[in-house]
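With this grant's support, we have settled on a layout for protein records. One resulting record is reproduced below.
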Amino acid sequence: MGNRRWLLLVVAVAAVVLLVGRTATALIVDHAWYDAMGVPTLFWERVLDTVLLQGGAWIVGSLFAFANLHAVRRTILAVAVPSRVANIELTAMVPGRRLLSATIILALLVGAVLAIPLTNWETLALARHGIPFGEIEGIFDRDLGHYVYWLPFEETMYLWALVSVVALTAMVLVLYALTRSLRLEGRRIAASTHVRRHLSVLGALVLLLLAWSYRLDAFDLLRAGSGPDGLFLRVDHRVTLRMDAVLAYGSAMAALIILRTGWAGQLKAAFVTLTVILLAAMGLRHVVPAVAARGDTLGDPARRDADYVAARALFSRRAFDADAVRPLPLDSADRANRAAMLPLPTPTATLGARASLWDAVTLAEGLRPGGTLPVSSTRGDDWATTGSEPRPAATDASGYMAVAAPGWFLLDGRVTALRVERPVSGAGAWRLSLVDASRAVLSDSLVPVPGSVADGRYGDKAPLVAPGASGARLLDGATAAEVPGALLDTPLARLAHAWALRDLSLLGADSTAGSPLLVSHRDVRERVRRIAPVFEQSTTVHAIRDGNRLYWVLHLYSASARYPLSQRWQVGDGVYSYFKLAGTAIVDAGTGRVRVMPAEKPDALARTWMTRLPGLFSRRAELPPSLAVQLPPPTDGAELQVRTFARYGSRLEGPVLRHLPDSAFINGPAAPVMLEQEGGAVASWSVPLLDAREAVAGVVTVTGGAVPTTYWWTSSPAVPWPATLARMAAAVDSLRAHARADSGGAPGPTPATVPRGSARAESAGPVSRALLSRPEAMVTSRGVLYVQAAQGAGADGRLSMGAAVVSDGEQIGVGPTLADALASLGETVERPRHGGRTAMGVSTPETDAPSRWYDAMRQAMKQGDWSAFGAAFDSLGRALGRPPQ
């Protein structure tokens, strides 16, 4: 017995040492990481909130568990433990002090288990520091911050209390059954007076939790009312809320009655009380509101909810920033002011080169060997991540996968996309390529990998931080001064990191690097989430390049599912009633440093985080203009802003019912158009809005750059959308028919065939299985132009455009390319010239492509990078008309 006791003691001490060591090393490692990222305040905020949340839950849970377990202990008179001395069997009685010690230890363990799930320290941080919105909702007269900050924390506490009471009640019932204090005698349950009183207390606690749930339900009703799409109605306000209040107070009073009657042994009275509460919950909460809504007791059914519909419109505009949409007329009355706000491309010279023919998803699919049109896709988030791994949306035959949505910029006056791919196997060099998105035939060209990522200083040719990157990297701090990481220059630091990361090789890190620097949390989303946990991330990670550096861009949003009286929209896997742009996270792929540029007008939640962590946010002036101009438009926030604006209008124009075309946002946002702003050309996309007659009421344009903005171009006269699409499709069919006739009646739905090298350069050539792309609207100095293309696979398997049709609502222009379609519309189109080199270090002429790919092959041979050599060789084959088979 003595040896067994010592063994148990050793095991217990070892477990405590491991647990304490694990916790201590995790704290050391986290502090080193946050300190390297320049936000040590966030580490201490996280530690303090976690201690308050889990520590408080542990103390309260342990006390509650001890009270229940000690009550059970009082029913145990003695515990006999059989023992044996030589051949004599003895029965030893366990001392009461030892039973008390066991009860305390078990209560502490139960409290710890109950506290483990409370890891959402961010809810407590917002509840403690949240800056008020300064707006009252008008039903409960609460600041809107109560719903965004306090209500999530209160719901967390309610769920914890509910789980704790249910778990301890189940444990108590089992223990009483084991001690025979609660038993079944025939068909009745027999319990002692002590057990009856204990269960009465637990029953009263359950009723108090029920009262708490009705309080929370009243607040939740403002978010999800009984009307269509969760609309809060008059019956909810005048009837259901009052029923919730009656049930909350009634449940609290019933808890006192249950406690009194159960304690006194009046079981029938307790049973009647519980039955009345349950029946009242069903009748008052569901039946009474349904009956009141049927008649005219609350007023004329046709008009009584008008104020609540108006309230939803008002709160929805605020929640999704619909009032920030800037209205601009398309007529000539205010042309000078309009041009000053947003210079528009002219069809005669720049639209053909500044308008992409391909959206991001189609571009990625079209550059895959054998790629197809993603006609079944419903969103453009093919680069969104699940956990830390990106979905392999664009894997080509050579084993490469696109890791981010392309970044858009102007290169030699033409809209160009930057693609970043990594090998699927995880080994080998990454590929960067440029795509001239204004050409009818998709082809890419390799570009030099940014020096900060792959010049050999960091050991390989993969970005240090990237979407889906996993594991830690050990660098030489002497040659990586810009990289934020944890220095392993002391034995304690090496031991802590080796223990926390379970990597014993880190103990000898000082022998493999002169100044060992450990970089962890290399996935882009994980890294941004650790420093900005209160924000929702965009569904898409974008890749942009400035000079010789590669960056990942994520938009951050202030989001809440509990904002009251507002429309609810779905984004990704979440449904939100509040969604505003808070800022843009810019992650250096070569160093891992994160900068967050706040929105121009941050909301209260964003200001809360900016107040707590001022060192995390960068001013707009601190961002290089060449980088700021490449920031993409905020797709998710802009989509919800446009949907809200279409349904509820804005404060300036009042409620105007509009809707989006069915094809809107299929494959994500529309293909970008580059618009000139101060500092350079920024990417933008547009979508038309239709009125009740299915006519185009106007066009919404969303721009990127340092100050993303949404513009609303009113259209006059209204253009009938279905009729315009039908005419455009007929024009494409006519061009196909002429093409077949010119080629001798070749069968098949083939768009126009134009000889290569003719005046109509860039035509796609014969295309089989052509499909009409999504119709898009482009706002130009001439007005709104509607563009649609016939896209399909060419003879070499690459995705190509066989025909383009342009309409201004009255005239129809059609041709093999967008420039030809504009010319047939009556525009004098200047063919953009190619040539020269740019700040990106890449020349763009099609005739120079073989030279560039040959240089890339030579460079790959020098470095022994055969993956890059093969990619350049395939590109050279395409340029020579010999695509890889």
